[in-house]
Amino acid sequence: MVDKNLTVAKTGNEAMAEAMRQINPDVVAAYPITPATEIAQIFAGFVADGLVHTEFVRVESEHSAMSAAVGAAAAGGRCMTATSSQGLMLMSEILPIASALRLPIVMPEVNRTIAGPINIHCDHSDTMFVRDSGWMQVYCEDAQEAYDSVLMGIKIAEKAMLPMMVSTDGFIISHCMARVDLIPDEDVTKYLGQYKPETWLLNPDKKITLGGLDLQDYYFEHKMVAIDAMYKSKAIIKECCEEFAGKFGRNYDFFESYEMDDAETAILAMGSVCGTAKVAVDNLRKDGKKVGLVRMRVFRPFPAEELAKTLSNLKTLAIMDRSDAMSAGEAPLAIETKAALYGRKKQPKTHNYVFGLGGRDIKVEEIEDVYKEMLDFTQPEKNFDRKVTYLGVRE
Amino acid sequence: MATLKELAKKPEYFTNGHRGCAGCGAAIVARHVLMATDGNVVVANATGCLEVFSTIFPFTAWNVPFIHNAFENAAATISGVEACYQSLKAQKRYDKEVKFIAFGGDGGTYDIGLQALSGAMERGHDMLYVCYDNGAYMNTGIQRSSATPKGANTTTAPAGKVEQGKTQKRKDFTAILVAHHIPYVAQAVVGDWADLTRKVEKALSIKGPTFINVFQPCRLGWGYEPSRTIEMGRLAKETCFWPVFEVENGVYKLNYNPKDRKKPITEFLKPQSRFKHLFKEENKPLLEEIQKDVDQEWQRMLKICEAT
Q1: Which residue is closest to A219 within chain B, CA to CA?
Q2: Do B88 and A97 touch (CB under 8 A)?
């Protein structure tokens, strides 16, 4: 129990599990997978000790975890699960069903690469694989942000009536101890209130048929509702971030701008690498280089307008992706950022770097080199088909 | 147990106006199962004929709360609904008594949905799973499943010049559920409403996971006259192709034993065009083999029922 503001040392997984304890969901359905296993494991301890009133469904697969989560959320409960990598892939069939049914399931997702070859370490290829599944996606830089984002996620998801995955970099965030400021249990309970869905299966006053067959004459209109909801969720996220800052003093937005006021060149990236990039920025700033960093947090809904505005005054921009799009020319973050910039009068020259696949480490010096390349723009587009520079891979 | 007169007076929880074939057995299963309830149920349905013909937007044949999620996860989905119910009840946020029923065809149950069903049964949710077993993937156009009987002509195991339909035996799925040591497992058949509704009532009166495997004639996939659905179900029972029994806490009870009036399997096979090729002179040995299989299984069933 946390009965006052408390500063503790927690791993990313512990912090997210702690957030789940405080949320006290009606149902959690989960299946273990490295590196997310601990989240369900720690939570199971809370259940065993009677610290939560959650009905914990120990499913036999991630497919059933997401299926049961859909059932529980449709029934009218606040429902959560957690996963990684192959688990997310196994869930992937049900993810768009959850969003189409407008079920606000919140899922901590610990980023791990996808097989094959099989590997348990971090990159973003798992969540990028499901980026169009209708789930909101938030990428965190550290355990504190993971904790806060899970709490805020419940509020955002229930207001937007859309599911959300809150991801942390596998092992780098999930298993590393960091300082986390916890909010008292009572304040979390008060902040979130009780979930009151508009329609729910157990509602004795209104029988509903959910998930019926929707053919050519209705499907498109119904899909539009979910598409519109994703666009509209931007305003909800904005509003919830402001509310959270007002209540608990920590500021979040679609993305974080670091040393961007007078920056001429910047890196755009997501996740834990941004902590390393901030060190590189600080080092280069000492030498008088006008460099900055934009750290994407919210990838879905994609904040195209806000991002383009922030980036358009730069001379050059390196977009660093921790996943690849297999011959699409560039990787997901680059593709979407450039689509956002396209057609604007002012826009930076860009180059896409793919790094860290399968947990390959990236060092401060490598990021400084990226900045240096971008300052001179020594990475012209040599090859129209293959514009990406792959960092840290042996030839 | 309700009489036919009483059942006829109950509200229709699975209503008419759906788009099932004339003579559809799956619709009969849904209707009879729900007739045996008081309507305070939530239904989950696997993708398949039943879901497709009963929920085409903006219509629904379900006069009870209903959810369809995907093909292989009806059991997992209803387990989530039930878990939410238990949670809300324990928190004293909900006070209504509700039962939970999942429907799946043999595709969604024997094959693609086996894992999710096994998981839900093992976890002990308070739910009834009803399989409507018509012995093939009828919704996608009569492809073989692990429930398809030996010798049946299907679109993925057709009777041709060198193969005579499905070459393997159907799997004994009900036995797999018995092996889960759940409190109640039963086999029933379309055509015996009294037996089916009694079994549903019984299953729902028991706390914990229960399973009923209902053998369901499919006029389109089996190729018989639409008016003969009930008769086909009864023939499956009377030939002992589909033993009608129940297993309560591990104890088997045979609900129907024709004894010396057991009909030859050909009476069940003959009216169905999917078995037409078996009646060619050269396929006589295959037909004999099928009869032998049925006899062997029936003897085994009699022994099990005696033993427990």
Answers
A1: B57
A2: no
pLDDT (0 to 100) of residue A387: 85
pLDDT at A301 over 90: yes
Q: Dump pLDDT digits (tens) for A249-268.
A: 999 999 999 999 999 999 99
Distance, in Å, from the CA atom of A391 to the CA atom of A378, rounded to the nearest integer, reads: 15
As a whole number of angstroms, the distance between CA A156 and CA B29 comes to 42
A68 and B CB contact within 8 Å: yes
**d(Cα A88, Cα A66) in Å, to the nearest integer?**
9
DSSP B64: S
Tokens of B8: 């006829």
Identify the CA nearest to A173 among candidates A223, A114, A131, A110. Answer: A110
Q: Is the dihedral of CA A219, A222, A227, A230 positive or negative?
A: negative
User: How is chain A split into domains, by residue range?
Assistant: 6-195+227-248, 255-390
Question: With an 8 Å Cβ cutoff, are A27 and B80 in contact?
Answer: yes
Residues whose CB is less than 8 angstroms from the CB of residue A83 and which lie 6 or more positions away in sequence, other chains included: A30, A31, A33, A36, A62, A65, A91, A107, A109, A110
C-alpha to C-alpha distance for A75 and B42, rounded to whole angstroms: 9
CATH number of this structure's domain A6-195+227-248: 3.40.50.970
Burial status of residue B253 (CB atoms within 10 A of its CB: 0-12, 13-18, 19 or more): exposed
pLDDT tens digits, one per residue of A195-249 = 999 999 999 889 999 999 999 999 999 999 999 999 999 999 999 999 999 999 9
Average pLDDT, chain B: 97
* Interface test with chain A among B18, B69, B72, B101, by most A beta carbons within 10 Å: B69
CB contact under 8 A, B116 and A75: no
Q: A210 to chain B: which residues are within 8 Å by CB? A: 66-68
Indicate yes or no: CB of B80 within 8 angstroms of CB of A76.
no
Phi, psi dihedral angles at B262 (to 5 degrees): -60, 125
CA distance B113 to chain A (A): 10
* Cβ-based contacts under 8 A for chains A and B: 158
Do the domains at A6-195+227-248 and A255-390 have one common CATH topology?
A: yes
Residues in chain B with CB shorter than 8 Å from the CB of A222 are 57
Cα B73-B76-B82 angle, rounded to 5 deg: 140
Average pLDDT over residues B45-58: 97
Looking at the complex, report in whole angstroms how far the Cα of residue B73 sits from the nearest Cα belonging to chain A: 6
Residues 6+ apart with CB under 8 A from B277: B153, B159, B164, B165, B283
pLDDT of residue B308: 80
CATH number of A255-390: 3.40.50.920
Global ipTM: 0.97
Which residue of chain B comes nearest to A97, CA vs CA? Answer: B69
Residue A381 has a pLDDT of: 61
